[in-house]
C-alpha cells in the first residue's frame, strides 16, 4: 500500500512535474492555488489523464493498467453516485467489480454504510440524500472496493459550513482506519491541516514545499504558503543576526544565520506609528497604507514601503492613527519577533 509516483503531464500552456510518495496509512494533502495542477495530479494517478511518468503501488507499476485494475478508490467531486442505484447498490458496486458474489457484496456494502453512519439510508437513491450523506456513500463505495490507494478531490467542497465541520471529523476518523495510502486535494488549508499527515504544496505544476503542518506553518518557503499561514515572509542573505533583503534592507532577526535565508514574522508583531518611533525597535521603516480590511477582531493593514508588510492592529489603534489608504505611517518589528531560517 505504498505509493511511489512521478507524474509528468504536458499541456499547451501547462506542465505538471511532481514526485509523490505515500506510506501505508499515510494521508498526504496536495494544497495549492487555483490552476496549480492538483486535480490533474490526482487524475493522472487514477488513470483519467495521460501520464508520461511512472506510478508504482507496492512495487508494481500500474500506470499502464486501465483505471479499474489499479486498486485505486476515488471520491471525486464530479465522480457522482449512480443516480438509478440505491445507496446500498452504489456501495456494492465496489466489491462487485472485484467479482465478489452479489449477496456477499451487498452484505459488505451494508457493513460499510453502517460504518459511515448510514444504516437507515441503504435503500435511498442519491437524490434522496443530503450532500453530506452522498459524500459518505461515495466514501463507503470507494473503501468497499478495498483499494490500496484512496484519492479524494476536494471531498468537502460541496458541503455547507456546518455539514463540512461534521463530515471533516468523520472523514478524519475513516481515514485513520484506512490501511492504504491516501492522497487528497484541497484548496482549504483547514482541511489539509486537519486531515493530512503531510502536506505537499504545489504551485505552477511543481512541488514548492512539503512537510508536516507544524514545519510548514513555522517555516513557509513561498509567498503562497506564507499567506496561507498568515506570515510576512522575506528572502535575503543572512550575516549574523541580520538578513539583508534583495534591495539591501537590513532586517534584524532573533537568531544568527549565515547565507541565503528566509525571515518571517506575523502581522501581529508589527507596530504602526504616525511618526518615527523613538528608542528601541531595531526594524523601523516608513511606508504607505495600501489597504485596510477586517481580519477577525483586528484590522489587517497592508503597507507598501522599503519592505511590503501586513500589520494587524486593533480598531481603536486604527482610529487613533487615522489609518486609511494613502496614509503615511512608520512600521516597526522587534528583532526578537523575526524568525530566520535557511533558504
Ligand atoms: N481538461 C483540460 N484540458 C486542458 N487544460 C486543462 C484541463 N484541465 C485543467 N487544465 C489546465 O491545467 C492546469 C492545472 O489545472 P488543475 O485543475 O489540475 O489545477 P488545480 O490545482 O486542481 O486547480 P483548482 O484548485 O482550480 O481546481 C490549469 O492551467 C488548467 O487550466
From TrEMBL:
GO molecular function list: ATP binding; ATP hydrolysis activity
Pfam families: ABC_tran, TOBE
InterPro entries named among the record's database cross-references: AAA+_ATPase (IPR003593), ABC_SmlMolc_Importer (IPR050093), ABC_transporter-like_ATP-bd (IPR003439), ABC_transporter-like_CS (IPR017871), Mo/tungstate-bd_C_term_dom (IPR008995), Mop_domain (IPR004606), P-loop_NTPase (IPR027417), Transp-assoc_OB_typ1 (IPR005116)
Domain ABC transporter: residue ranges: 1-229
Keyword Transmembrane included in the entry's annotation: no
GO biological process assignments: molybdate ion transport
Domain Mop: 278-342
Keyword line: ATP-binding, Molybdenum, Nucleotide-binding, Transport
PANTHER family referenced in this protein's UniProt entry, alphabetically: SPERMIDINE/PUTRESCINE IMPORT ATP-BINDING PROTEIN POTA, SPERMIDINE_PUTRESCINE IMPORT ATP-BINDING PROTEIN POTA
Entry protein name: Molybdate transport system ATP-binding protein
Organism: Paractinoplanes atraurantiacus
Amino acid at each position: 500500500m505504498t505509493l511511489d509516483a512521478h507524474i509528468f503531464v504536458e499541456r499547451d500552456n501547462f506542465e505538471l512535474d511532481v514526485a509523490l510518495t505515500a506510506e501505508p496509512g499515510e494521508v498526504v494533502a496536495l494544497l495549492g492555488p487555483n490552476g496549480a495542477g492538483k486535480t490533474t495530479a490526482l487524475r493522472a494517478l487514477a488513470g483519467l489523464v495521460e501520464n508520461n511518468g511512472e506510478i508504482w503501488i507496492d512495487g508494481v507499476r500500474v500506470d499502464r493498467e486501465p483505471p479499474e485494475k489499479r486498486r485505486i478508490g476515488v471520491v471525486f467531486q464530479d465522480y457522482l453516485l449512480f443516480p438509478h442505484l440505491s445507496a446500498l447498490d452504489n456501495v456494492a458496486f465496489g466489491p462487485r467489480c472485484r467479482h465478489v458474489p452479489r449477496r456477499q457484496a451487498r452484505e459488505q456494502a451494508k457493513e460499510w454504510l453502517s460504518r459511515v453512519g448510514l444504516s437507515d439510508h441503504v435503500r435511498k437513491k442519491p437524490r434522496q440524500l443530503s450532500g453530506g450523506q452522498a459524500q459518505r456513500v461515495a466514501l463507503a463505495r470507494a473503501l468497499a472496493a478495498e483499494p490500496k490507494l484512496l484519492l479524494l478531490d476536494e471531498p468537502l467542497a460541496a458541503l455547507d459550513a456546518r455539514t463540512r465541520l461534521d463530515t471533516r471529523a468523520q472523514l478524519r476518523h475513516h481515514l485513520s482506519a484506512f490501511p492504504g495510502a491516501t492522497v487528497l486535494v484541497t484548496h482549504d488549508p483547514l482541511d489539509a491541516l486537519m486531515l493530512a499527515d503531510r502536506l505537499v504544496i504545489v504551485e505552477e505544476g511543481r512541488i514548492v514545499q512539503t512537510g508536516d503542518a507544524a514545519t510548514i506553518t513555522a517555516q513557509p518557503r513561498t509567498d503562497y504558503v506564507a499567506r496561507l499561514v498568515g506570515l510576512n515572509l522575506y528572502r535575503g542573505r543572512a550575516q549574523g543576526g541580520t538578513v539583508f533583503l534583495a534591495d539591501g534592507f537590513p532586517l534584524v532577526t532573533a537568531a544568527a544565520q549565515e547565507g541565503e535565508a528566509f525571515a518571517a514574522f506575523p502581522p501581529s508583531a508589527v507596530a504602526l506609528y504616525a511618526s518615527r518611533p523613538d528608542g528601541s525597535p531595531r526594524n523601523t521603516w516608513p511606508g504607505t497604507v495600501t489597504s485596510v480590511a477586517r481580519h477577525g477582531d483586528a484590522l489587517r493593514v497592508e503597507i507598501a514601503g522599503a519592505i511590503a508588510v501586513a500589520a494587524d492592529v486593533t480598531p481603536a489603534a486604527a482610529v487613533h492613527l487615522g489609518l486609511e489608504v494613502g496614509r503615511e505611517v512608520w512600521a516597526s518589528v522587534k528583532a526578537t519577533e523575526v524568525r530566520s531560517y535557511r533558504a
